[in-house]
Design brief:
The chain is α/β, with parallel strands linked by helices. It has one domain (2-182): P-loop containing nucleotide triphosphate hydrolases (Rossmann fold, 3-Layer(aba) Sandwich). The chain has nine helices and five strands, in the order βαβαααβαβαααβα. The protein has helices at residues 14-25, 32-41, 45-56, 62-73, 91-103, 118-126, 135-149, 151-158, 171-182, and strands at 3-7, 29-31, 82-85, 110-115, 162-166. Helix 2 (32-41) packs across helix 3 (45-56) and helix 4 runs parallel beside helix 5 (91-103). The protein starts with a strand and ends with a helix. The structure holds adenosine monophosphate. Adenosine monophosphate binds at residues 10, 31-33, 36, 53-54, 57-60, 65, 86-87, 89, 93, 141. The site of adenosine monophosphate has 17 residues, from helix 2 and helix 3.
Length: 183
């Protein structure tokens, strides 16, 4: 049963890799960012709340995000494994997830840290053209990543759950390395 959390700076290729690995393994790819973007597109109540945060590159409040993940992991397709992409994003979310996974008996998760240097991620993000990829928002997302999310690397290393993959190579090379480390 594969349960993986993908960590890494925005622009490291997390989304692409998480999606294709999930497809290969036949398990859901759960991206909180995608869920928010979809909700914004559909103008749901969740979307209305999330929009202001995404537009600024800030994190959506923990409680809202945590409830969403809890709900998603309880669905039937998530019972045979999953890849979480973009969650957790800070230590409180990670602590919440630890507890949740123990409670629902899914606590065999491993964490893939997709590592890539700053110059690379900024260049990639600027070339991507997503709505929240303007230069100011990118800068803010990187700041938030460094301050809030990067500490999760040590958090999971301390818990012996961390696997590291070099994101500074071609998508094909990343996916080969990824398949090796999770085997
Ligand atoms: P992503 O697609 O993972 O780059 O996420 C895009 C945006 O969605 C982020 O900049 C945040 O505004 C929001 N977001 C995604 N995941 C989370 C999370 N776990 N906690 C809070 N906000 C999130």
């Amino acid at each position: 049963m594969t349960r993986l959390i993908f960590l890494g700076p925005p622009g490291a290729g997390k989304g692409t890799q998480a999606q294709s690995l999930a497809q290969f393994l036949g398990i859901p790819h759960i991206s909180t960012g995608e869920i928010f973007r979809q909700a914004i597109k559909e103008q749901t109540p969740l979307g209305t709340i999330a929009q202001g945060y995404l537009d600024k590159g800030e994190l959506v409040p923990d409680e809202l995000t945590q409830n969403l993940v809890k709900e998603r992991l309880s669905q039937s397709d998530a019972q045979s494994g999953w890849i979480l992409d973009g969650f957790p994003r800070n230590v409180s979310q990670a602590a919440f997830l630890d507890q949740l996974l123990v409670t629902i008996n899914q606590n065999n998760e491993r964490v893939v840290n997709l590592d890539a240097p700053d110059e690379i991620v900024v260049t990639r993000l600027l070339g991507r053209g997503r709505k929240d990829d303007s230069e100011d928002v990118i800068r803010r997302r990187l700041e938030v990543y460094r301050a809030e999310t990067a500490p999760l690397i040590d958090y999971y290393r301390d818990r012996q759950k961390l696997l590291t993959v070099n994101g500074n190579q071609s998508p094909e090379e990343v996916s080969t390395e990824l398949q090796k480390v999770i085997a």
